[in-house]
C-alpha cells in the first residue's frame, strides 16, 4: 500500500487532493504535516508557498526519501523546470483529471516520472531555453547518466532498456528527464551533450 503525504497549505486544494486519494484503493495512508522521520512513499507538495516562491528547499529535503509530485493552480514554466531539477518526479496542475492524478501517483510510487499532459504543456518550448549543460551536470542521476551514455552511442530505447535491465518505458521517462535537465529537445544533440559532460569517458 502507498503511503502519501499532502503538503499543501491551501485548504481547498488539500481537501480536493485528499478526496482523490481516498478513491484510490492502492493508497494505504494519507497524512498532513508528517514528522521528519515519517516513512512516506509519495509527497504531494504545493509548488508555491505563501510567499509565491517555488518550494525548492522542501523538494530537496523530501527527494532523498520519497517521490515528490508538485501541484499548483498554474505553475510558471521556469519554476516547474526548477522543481524537476531539484528532484521532483512530476507536476500536477490543479485541473488534472482524476485518472491522470491516479496514474501520476502510481507512477511516482513505482519510482517513475509522471509526465502528464499538464507537465508536457508546461515544458513545451522550455527545453531550448534551459541553462548551460555544464552547469546542470550534478542534476543527472546515475540512471539518467547511464541512459544518456548508451543512447548517445547509438542504442535504441529497447536496446538501452535491455542493457540497463529495465522496461522500455523507464528509458523513455529517463530521456524526458534528461531533456528537461539539460535543456535540449532534439535527439541529434545527444552526442554533443555527452561530449560536453565528458560522459564518453565513463
Task: Characterise this structure.
With 202 residues, the protein is of the alpha/beta class. It has 2 domains: 2-123, Rossmann fold; 127-201, Arc Repressor Mutant, subunit A, CATH 1.10.10.10. It is built from 9 helices and 5 strands. It has helices at 11-22, 56-62, 77-86, 98-109, 117-123, 142-152, 157-164, 168-182, 190-197; strands at 2-7, 27-32, 42-46, 67-72, 91-93. A 5-stranded parallel sheet has the order 2-1-3-4-5, sandwiched between helices. α1 (11-22) links the parallel β1 (2-7) and β2. α6 crosses α7, α6 (142-152) crosses α8 and α7 (157-164) crosses α8. The radius of gyration is 17 Å and the shape is globular. It starts with a strand and ends in a 5-residue tail after the last helix.
CATH architecture of the largest domain: 3-Layer(aba) Sandwich
Oligomer: single chain
Q: What is the level 1 CATH name of the largest domain? A: Alpha Beta
Could you tell me the mean pLDDT? Answer: 77
Shape by Cα distribution = globular
The side-by-side strand order for the widest beta sheet comes to 2-1-3-4-5
